[in-house]
Design brief:
By secondary structure, this protein is an alpha/beta fold. It has four domains: about 20-160, PAS domain (Beta-Lactamase, 2-Layer Sandwich), CATH 3.30.450; about 175-250, Orthogonal Bundle (Helix Hairpins); about 260-410, Heat Shock Protein 90 (2-Layer Sandwich); about 420-565, Response regulator (Rossmann fold). The protein has 17 helices and 17 strands. Strands 6, 7, 8, 9, 10, 11 and 12 form a seven-stranded mixed beta sheet that branches. Helix 6 (about 165-215) packs antiparallel against helix 7, helix 8 packs parallel to helix 9 (about 300-315) and helix 9 (about 300-315) runs antiparallel to helix 11. The radius of gyration is 36 Å and the shape is elongated.
């Protein structure tokens, strides 16, 4: 027999099952308090309280539900289920989701909610209520199974609140965030566009100034001083444009990083060679660490160099005459390393430290003799964070500052297949007398170069040329006409994609197949590379058999393509 819940058709104060009835042994005051509490809950205008029997038919509909939904209790009690006043699409979607969660077929409707509650789990969710007049509003509803003294389900209790205000605030906040993001992207696009536009006249200024400087007859001494000022200002303006362009690319999400194993010792050595002459000109002594143990970080090699050079140059620029710059490292955990750049400058006040990494904020150095934009540290911070690292600074007025970055440690570059040697032994050997063919590898990471050199050393039919950046790779390709080019994507100067497009646009090198070899291993990166025009796209760590197969395929294509070119008379 169905267990009916007592209710009132003229009002909604019906008490729901024996669980809400006061115990006979309680005092009169307790009964009065319990009755007052029940009355306050059931007559609340701020909460809709709907109770059903175990079949999901409404048995109680309080004042709050009447106010929110526009129905009188008599219109719904014993007549409909809560699913009839919910958005039907939401009910169906929830039933399907619950069916998947429980691996049990559940018919769309209130049964979906009832089944969830029958497991004794309170369920709270967002839904849309449909009022009597057809209007709708968002609500947050909590459903709870009600049981008798024997643990059997006797009904369900739904307590709901109007969620319109929160939804409206969320919508307005999302719209504001979208507008801000759109404005930020527009600003970045504008800066990027303007930076490119400024390069054209600047190219003419610097170009003709250099022509005059080196022309014949030689400029007079006053003219030479004027030209020096023009060139100095021009090169500074170019640096400013490059920094703005870099910041615009980063903030618009257009910077492509290639995280891989980067040797700190190698990068530090290159940074030292670039920055030490600047320090000596200013009388600054520099101390660099010795790495007794080789440490490798998971980062983009080019960007790590950019970050360190920026910190080192700042330490020199804002140091005192005859000061020192000390580079140190320390393990912060088994998985992270901190690199610190310490100077002996005037130091920063706490208020200045708080304003670090703000665009165009030079911390009061605007009137100093040192030129600057206030962009470099912002770019540095963004790049460090994009590589999964952390940057910070400590300073003492009169004693100097220390800027530090923390990066994640990783293992040295290695072949992806541990049995690389055994795998390679299974490949057929190259026949004696096979013509020697040239392979060009454009890569700036010495460790990766060494890996490929070891692989190519196994091939008696190949010789390997290497280039450390895209521009040099283009020149080598034009000069040596390799059969195949291996190209890293993230390179100093121009990217591998730009270098590839330049080679394809040149009739002298257009026939050479170019294979990408990159740590950018996401499917969208691979698709982007192939769409751009790469013959093939290999990812790091290198898989030996995959690498050799791709190389053989490119060599075969190169031979076929070369024959076609010769027949057409282009060679």
């Amino acid at each position: 027999m169905q267990k009916k819940l007592p209710h009132s058709t003229s009002a909604c104060y019906a008490v729901y099952g024996s669980q809400l009835m006061p115990d006979k042994t309680r005092s009169q005051s307790t009964m009065l308090k319990a009755g007052a509490l029940q009355h306050a809950i059931l007559t609340s205008a701020n909460f809709s309280i709907i109770a059903t029997d175990e079949k999901g038919i409404i048995q109680l509909f309080n004042v709050g539900a009447e106010r929110m939904l526009g129905y009188h209790a008599a219109e719904v009690v014993n007549k409909i289920s809560p699913s009839d006043i919910h958005d039907p699409e939401e009910v169906i979607a929830r039933a399907r989701a619950l069916s998947l969660e429980l691996a049990t077929p559940i018919a769309p409707g209130f049964e979906a909610l009832a089944f969830k509650a029958s497991r004794g789990i309170e369920d709270s969710y967002d839904l849309t209520y449909i009022c009597k007049d057809g209007s709708r509003f968002p609500a947050v509803v909590s459903i709870t199974a009600l049981r008798d003294d024997y643990g059997d389900i006797i009904g369900y209790l739904l307590i709901g609140t109007d969620n319109s205000v929160r939804k409206r605030v969320e919508s307005e906040l999302n719209e504001a965030m979208a507008a801000a993001e759109k404005a930020n992207l527009a600003k970045s696009d504008f800066l990027s566009s303007m930076s490119h536009e400024l390069r054209t006249p600047l190219n003419a200024i610097l170009g003709f100034a250099q022509l005059i400087e080196s022309g014949s007859p030689a400029p007079t001494l006053p003219q030479k001083r004027n030209l020096d000022q023009i060139l100095k200002a021009g090169w500074y303006l170019l640096d400013l444009i490059n920094e703005i362009l870099d910041l615009a690319r980063i903030e618009s999400g257009k910077v492509m990083l290639s995280p891989e194993s980067v040797s700190l010792a190698e990068v530090m050595l290159e940074c030292r060679a670039m920055i030490e002459p600047q320090a000596h000109k200013r009388g600054i002594d520099m101390t660099f660490p010795r790495f007794a143990i080789p440490y490798f970080v998971k980062a983009d090699r080019t960007r790590v160099k950019q970050v360190l050079i920026n910190l080192l140059f700042n330490a020199i620029k804002y140091n005192r005459p005859g000061g020192t710059v000390t580079v140190e490292f320390a393990l912060r955990s088994p998985n992270a390393i901190r690199i610190s750049v310490r100077d002996t400058g005037v130091g920063l006040k706490p208020a200045q430290l708080a304003q670090l990494f703000q665009p165009f904020n030079r911390l009061g150095k605007e009137t100093s003799a040192e030129e600057g934009t206030g962009i470099g540290l912002v770019v540095t911070k963004r790049l460090v964070e994009l590589m999964g690292g952390v940057i910070g600074a400590d300073s003492t007025v009169g004693a100097g500052s220390v800027f530090w970055i923390e990066l994640n440690l990783t293992t040295a570059p290695q072949l992806a297949v541990l049995e690389a040697e055994q795998a390679e032994l299974t490949r057929p050997s190259v026949a004696h007398g096979t013509p020697l063919r040239t392979l060009l590898y454009v890569e700036d990471n010495p460790a990766n170069l060494e890996l490929v050199e070891q692989l190519i050393a196994r091939r008696s039919d190949l010789r390997l040329l290497t280039a450390a950046d895209g521009n040099l790779g283009i020149e080598f390709a034009r000069t040596y006409q390799p059969e195949v080019i291996l190209m890293d994507i993230n390179l100093p100067g121009i990217s591998g994609i730009e270098a590839m497009k330049t080679l394809h646009a040149d009739p002298v090198t257009a026939h050479i197949p170019i294979v990408a070899l990159s740590a950018n291993a996401l499917p969208r990166d691979i698709a982007k590379g192939l769409d751009a025009g790469f013959f093939n796209y290999l990812t790091k760590p290198i898989k030996v058999n995959e690498f050799m197969d791709a190389l053989d395929l490119a060599l075969k294509f190169s031979q076929t393509n070369s024959n076609r070119v010769e027949k057409k008379g282009f060679v």
